[in-house]
Write a structure and sequence with these properties.
The chain has one domain: 3-Layer(aba) Sandwich (Rossmann fold), CATH 3.40.50.150. Helices cover 41% and strands 18% of the residues. It has 9 helices and 7 strands. It has a 7-stranded mixed sheet with strand order 3-2-1-4-5-7-6. Helix 6 links the parallel strand 2 and strand 3. The protein binds S-adenosylmethionine (SAM).
């Protein structure tokens, strides 16, 4: 029922909510526009080609070489608490990646006293090849987990595409899906929406080899607000306190309300700056 009411609200909201200007932003140089044009050609070519060689499964080796003692201890702790061993399913780099994401979520939950009901519909926005899907599964124990990615057909040097890897990463995970879609046009309600490291300034998007036409954080966040069921939670992770502050203003401008923030000072993997997790709800 809540979902239906929410969807009814969506139609009105979508029509009235202005989207942000895209290419007229200050700070975007001619070189940026040229780079953007180049990225656009590749992006559109891969979208048209939709290349896939089928599910690609990376080979695990069952262990992590070269961990520090503190990394080993923390991994042991997380493995026991969540009953998982990512290293049995993924190669060391992907496994450590998952422990890193789970570490942040786990510490944020404890610090913010964040109550997470199980069996929720969880949607992740901008999932890349969804290498961290297993961490989201372990943490949220969702009834459904969906990863959405606009550039899901991107080709890697080995002839595989992002969707091939994503399908391999989620292969053994229950009720988990990967969808290639522009989230700004994605219309599906969710109890929890996560977004890890969204682009809130244009330069990182260009560095990620995407065209500036995809830079529209206000429209992305507005869609997230629209897709959240009443009482649902939006979980945003940013690369640094500075980036989190930019994201904060954009989220507030689309009517989201901050419910708590956690700065991750003790990252499992070395980082230049601490990641910041912020919880949001609709006003
Ligand atoms: C900085 S990357 C982070 C990737 C991933 N969340 C992670 O933590 O590794 C941002 C991702 O968002 C995706 N993205 C950007 N705009 C999007 C949109 N409108 N809809 C879906 N995905 C989008 C990009 O293609 C990119 O993969």
């Amino acid at each position: 029922m809540n979902i239906l009411i929410k969807q009814a609200r969506l139609g009105i909201h979508d029509k009235t909510k202005p989207t942000s200007p895209k290419l007229t932003r200050p700070g975007i140089t001619l070189t940026d526009r040229i780079r953007s044009g180049y990225h656009r050609i590749w992006y559109e070519a891969t979208q048209a080609l939709r290349w896939s060689r089928g599910t690609y499964r990376e080979t695990p080796i069952g262990t992590h070489p070269h961990l520090t003692p503190s990394q080993q201890n923390r991994i042991e702790e997380l493995s026991k608490s969540y009953g998982i061993r990512f290293e049995l399913r993924y190669p060391p780099e992907t496994s450590l990646f998952n422990y890193g994401y789970l570490d942040l979520l786990d510490r944020a939950q404890k610090s913010l006293n964040w109550n997470i009901p199980q069996q929720q519909h969880v949607c992740d926005v901008g999932s890349a090849n969804f290498a961290y899907a297993a961490a989201l599964q372990a943490f949220f124990l969702p009834s459904q987990l969906v990863g959405t990615e606009v550039d899901g057909h991107r080709l890697y040097c080995n002839g595989r595409s992002r969707i091939d890897y994503a399908q391999g990463h989620i292969q053994d995970l229950p009720h988990t899906h990967y969808i290639v879609a522009d989230y700004r046009q994605y219309q599906h309600p969710a109890d929890i929406i996560t977004v890890w490291y969204p682009f809130v300034t244009p330069k990182p998007l260009l560095a990620w080899r995407l065209p500036l036409s995809l830079f529209d954080p206000a429209a992305l966040f507005a869609k997230i607000a629209n897709n959240l069921v009443i009482g649902g939670t939006f979980v945003m992770i940013n690369h640094s306190p500075t980036e989190a502050s930019v994201a904060h203003s954009i989220a507030e401008s689309v009517g989201l309300v901050c419910k708590g923030q956690y700065v991750h000072h003790t990252s499992l993997r070395p980082r230049a700056q601490p990641a910041v997790l912020t919880l949001w709800q609709q006003s």
